[in-house]
Specification:
The complex is a heterodimer.
Chain A: H1 2-19, H2 26-38, H3 40-56, H4 65-73, H5 98-102, H6 108-116, E1 119-120, E2 127-130, E3 136-139, E4 144-149, E5 154-160, E6 162-167, E7 175-179, E8 182-186, E9 189-196, E10 199-206, E11 209-213, E12 218-221, E13 225-230, E14 233-234, E15 239-240, H7 244-247, E16 252-259, H8 260-268, E17 274-277, E18 285-291, H9 295-305, E19 308-314, E20 317-322
Parallel strand pairs in A: 5-7, 17-20
Antiparallel strand pairs in A: 1-4, 2-3, 3-6, 4-5, 6-9, 7-8, 8-11, 9-10, 10-13, 11-12, 13-14, 13-15, 16-18, 19-20
Helix pairs in contact in A: 1-3, 2-3
Chain B: H1 12-33, H2 39-55, H3 63-95, H4 106-123, H5 128-138, H6 144-151, H7 155-173
Helix pairs in contact in B: 1-2, 1-3, 2-3, 3-4, 5-7, 6-7
The chains are: A alpha+beta, B mainly alpha.
Chain lengths: 325, 183
């Protein structure tokens, strides 16, 4: 079993090395997507590789870079008898990075995807598109989409981020949206798709949509319902749709009692830098409508409704903590 | 990952091990790492070594076996501590050259240093060149051509070093490298 894992990690590391170069062509990127979608184990391996990549994220900022680079390049020569000793790895300290794990990881894959896609949005950007068949499509922050329309097909590839689609009817049949976890088809319907930590969230606002997971399972989702799926299939029973999955097209995030942890994950997508919340406040529930164009203001609204304080350590480093009264 | 099951340990054996080997270990640490650590630190490290053993008890075939194990744990702890200090110093040294308004709080400073230290642990087993390639790409975001030019190696080699470095890190991240749990 470990063998298989090793192999997948090896493949993932290899892909990472290929994707990290600036000079990457379309076909390689497509090949990576195919690899990623071919097996849930690939996805798991990629997640590990991304996690490693995310460890470097805090040090990529200007002004931090040189400092971090220099510190890590300090020669590791402890003056002892045998230099060999330096290469032994000690007992792994537990929890050293707990604080970091709570912060939002930069989704490297999303950045890569955005670089190569036909339609890509930057952090904080939203875009509205009118497709050739009259369908309307909105692309949320840091999202990437390829449009592949032909004589016999209406196919979209959501490579990263979030979209909302108002699909028109057409002789070619339903619009299909391919994602790394599976495909969603809909006709004369309005539905949203959003990459989340635990999979792909599908929200149907009008009509109905059908999910076919990479694993092959099919599920119909009716109007007003929402569910999350991954390569293995649908996670749970459909639940009522979240307003937030559509309200972003109008520039606001509508929180209907989501956990603060989730709120931070959502808001973090509209911001550069790091937004985290400490574990003791992560389960607090957030209700309200928050402006996405001004996430600083959205953050400032939080202490008005919750027992938290916003700590701005650096312009790009914001954490939400319990308020000590 | 498989670790050989610890032999049953009777309650007084940690105590016994401590009495028989603590003084010896302390001296060994001083002799070995005397340049890097003072007496108090050596005592601290000896203590930490036994704490590790307490947290994860195991039996030993012989006294020699026990000492070899204690040495290897103590060595690992010494290197960790020394390396952390080195990174912390390098980080704070360059920080002092920056405008004060940019300086994070001591608490977040410590978090950053922790994060750097964790990265360092992952990179420890890489060759110097592999490490440099990886850092130039990860932190500075240079393309492979630029890295190749700086280090006078081909782009192909850059890619190879990148994959090697990432695999090593990924194995540690996934807890699949046995060295990660050893002494």
């Amino acid at each position: 079993m470990a063998e298989a894992h090793f192999e997948h990690l090896q493949q993932a590391a290899d892909w990472y090395a290929r994707l990290s170069d600036e000079a990457l062509d379309e076909s390689q990127h497509a090949a990576w997507q195919r690899w990623l979608m071919a097996d849930p184990a690939h996805h798991a391996a990629w997640a590990v590789v991304e996690k490693v990549g995310a460890r470097f994220a805090p040090f990529r900022e200007t002004g931090r870079r040189e400092q971090a680079y220099d510190a890590l390049q300090v020669p590791a020569t402890l003056r002892v008898g045998r230099r060999r000793a330096l290469f032994s790895i000690g007992v792994l300290a537990a929890g050293g990075l707990l604080g970091w794990r709570a912060l939002r990881d930069t989704a490297l894959a999303d950045h890569f995807a955005a670089l190569r896609a036909e339609q890509a949005t930057r952090v904080g950007e939203r875009r509205e598109l009118r497709l050739a068949d009259g369908s309307r499509l909105w692309l949320n922050t840091l999202s990437a989409l390829d449009i592949d329309y032909g004589a016999d097909r209406r196919l979209l590839h959501l490579l990263a981020g979030e979209m909302l689609l108002e699909a028109s009817a057409d002789p070619r049949g339903p619009i299909r949206v391919a994602t790394r976890y599976g495909e969603v088809a809909g006709q004369r319907s309005t539905f949203g798709l959003c990459h989340q930590d635990d999979g792909m969230c599908l929200s149907v606002f009008a009509g109905m949509a059908e999910v076919t997971s990479v694993g092959g399972s099919r599920t119909r989702v009716e109007q007003g319902m929402q569910l999350t799926f991954s390569a293995k299939g649908v996670h749970d029973a459909p639940r009522p749709v979240e307003a937030a999955r559509r309200s972003w097209t109008r520039g606001s995030y509508v929180a209907e009692g989501v956990s603060l942890g989730r709120f931070v994950e959502e808001l973090g997508r509209y911001r550069k830098g790091y937004l985290g919340c400490s574990p003791e406040v992560a389960d607090l529930r957030v209700v309200g409508s928050f402006p996405l164009a001004d996430s600083e203001r959205a953050l400032d609204m939080l202490p008005l409704v919750l027992p938290v304080r916003i700590r701005r350590t650096l312009p790009w480093w914001v954490s939400i903590e319990a308020r000590i009264s | 990952m498989t670790i050989s099951a610890p032999a049953p340990l009777n309650p007084d054996s940690i105590d016994g091990l401590y009495r028989r080997h603590h003084g010896w270990l302390y001296q060994w640490l001083q002799r070995r790492f005397g340049d890097a650590f003072d007496h108090a630190e050596a005592a601290d490290l000896a203590q930490d070594t036994f704490v590790r053993l307490l947290l994860k008890p195991r039996g030993f075939a012989s006294e020699g076996d026990a000492r070899a194990f204690l040495c290897s744990v103590a060595r690992g702890l010494s290197i960790d501590r020394w390396r952390r200090r080195q990174i912390e110093k390098a980080w704070l040294d360059t920080l002092s050259a920056q405008p004060e308004s940019f300086a994070p709080s001591a608490e977040h400073q410590a978090m950053l240093i922790d994060a750097l230290y964790e990265i360092d642990r992952m990179l420890r087993r890489l060759s110097e060149k592999t490490r440099t390639v990886f850092l130039l790409a990860q932190i500075h975001g240079y393309g492979y051509r630029e890295i190749g030019e700086r280090l006078a190696i081909s782009e192909r080699m850059v890619k190879k070093y990148m994959a090697r470095a990432m695999l090593q890190c990924a194995l540690l991240e996934a807890g699949m490298n046995d060295d990660a749990v050893g002494g």
